[in-house]
Description:
492 residues, alpha/beta, Aldehyde Dehydrogenase, Chain A, domain 1, Aldehyde Dehydrogenase, Chain A, domain 2, 2 domains, seven-stranded mixed sheet, 38% helix, Aldehyde_DH_dom, Ald_DH_C, Ald_DH_N, oxidoreductase
Amino acid sequence: MSSLLAHPDRLFIGGVWTWPVAEETAVVIRPDTEEPYLRVALAGRGDVAAAVGAARQAFDEGPWPRLSPQRRGEYVKALAGELRARSADLATLWASQVGVLHSVATAAMPSVADVFELYAGLPERFPLVERRPTKFPRRVGLLAREPVGVVAAIIPWNGPADIIAYKLAPALIAGCTVVLKASVEAPGEAYVFAEAAEAAGLPPGVVNVVTADREVSESLVRDPRVDKVSFTGSTAAGRRIAALCADRIARVTLELGGKSAAVILDDYDLGTAAKALAKAQCFLSGQACAALTRIVVPAGRHDEFVEALAAEYGGMRVGSQFDPASRMGPLATRVQRDRVERYIAAGRAEGAVVATGGGRPADLDTGFFVEPTVFARADNAMTVAREEIFGPVLTVVPAADEADAVRIANDSDFGLNAAVFTTDADRAYRVARELRAGTVGHNGMRVDYGIAFGGFKQSGIGREGGVEGLLPYLETKTIVLDDDPVLENHGA
């Protein structure tokens, strides 16, 4: 069992490491060895209610929302420092729990602290109180942005640390208090964040951390003391959360699934496109909502592209995430591997052609591994072109021309990410504007949380990252005064 966490047997509620009401635990299985890696306390309804109560008290009675944004920024900077010191631990936890390559995790984890530092400095560039013209003569108009209140941040298993950062950092700088709900498949990072919040000296109740299953998590969403829910996960779960929030008009941000299209135009080198797409899909073994898994190519170039893609993707070495020679690790869980294998079977049954992969690696008897798989000659109506597989499976769909390629790309319930492969930037921009997706990259995966990230259609509601990611944690208030106040006297 991992020894990286100080209190895995407890929950972090009201600034105190608290024993759960029941003695239930969740066990994380390491996906390459199928052995137990981590055991953590599992919250019940009473524990979740206590966490919400602590966050509610910290918001209603505590100092946090009443501090100036600059003072909150000092705490957030301190939290960034604690997280930066734990980057190696975060990388090990990520790799061990869900199978991302350890080398990739090690390179990525320092950026988690960067997110907190970015938001700590944001009030200097984005004031939360501004003077605005008003229709009333000789009056002073103000637009104030105030914290939305208690936030339930519900985190998935595939990339916990980054997703926590893009929820927690803007919520904290806005003045909100938070109940952070970790997934049972990958709870370790949330514990590190709790330890970091404690070490940074955040007031009690500002950050609370629990791990809970879906049934108990629903009690968090239903709790009337929660003002806003920020959820990242499947579209099915997001639909349920949205319905529960609608019942009481709670604020909600949803970052959901995708079936993102890469459109290859007729002027682009197919070998270069194949290399870029194969490399990108190796990340997290395809367990990423923004993965470019649906590739639309001119019909006359389809076979040549499939040959190049199959050579690149099929040649990726699959193995333990801690083996430096591996290019792709395992899937996170047995359940996830079984799901991917069912989709591969569905693709075959519906007539798509397996150009490479389609099974488990012959040399790996243990672990939740699946071969990098390419489906060719797919129709956009097939299951493997319509539904999010969340695994190392790419589907190639031929198109008659550019207009048909755009039509195929947009013919989806999802609209999270996309890419256009062309040597012409003007053409790329024109096609990008036609694609119904929250992000469009030129010649590759170009997701940038520093600008904004989120989806169209069933890929979600709202945005995370940058100023756009701060706004969902703020309520806007109009104030009209008889005289001009000194805003600095009020912590603005």
